[in-house]
Design brief:
The chain is an all-alpha fold. The protein has one domain. The protein contains two helices and no strands. It is rod-shaped, with a radius of gyration of 28 Å.
């Protein structure tokens, strides 16, 4: 709260309205960020990332086995 002294009830009401609106804005921003987080950490995204790592791992194992047989 910016002011600690008010000269009228209208000023108090005005400050309360501002604080309520700020709280609503903060709540909507939080919802927006949570939705973004949910979409970036969805099961499909995680599985897609895992597939890429699994391919690289499998490829390195195959290359090691081929090199082992050659040398």
């Amino acid at each position: 709260m910016k002011k600690s002294e008010f000269s009228s009830f209208n000023e108090i009401d005005q400050e309360l309205k501002i604080l309520r609106l700020q709280r609503q804005v903060d709540r909507e921003q939080l919802k927006f960020h949570l939705n973004g987080l949910k979409s970036s950490v969805s099961a499909t995204t995680i599985l897609g990332s895992f597939k890429g790592v699994a391919k690289k791992l499998l490829l390195s194992i195959v290359v090691k086995k081929i090199l082992k047989k050659m040398g």
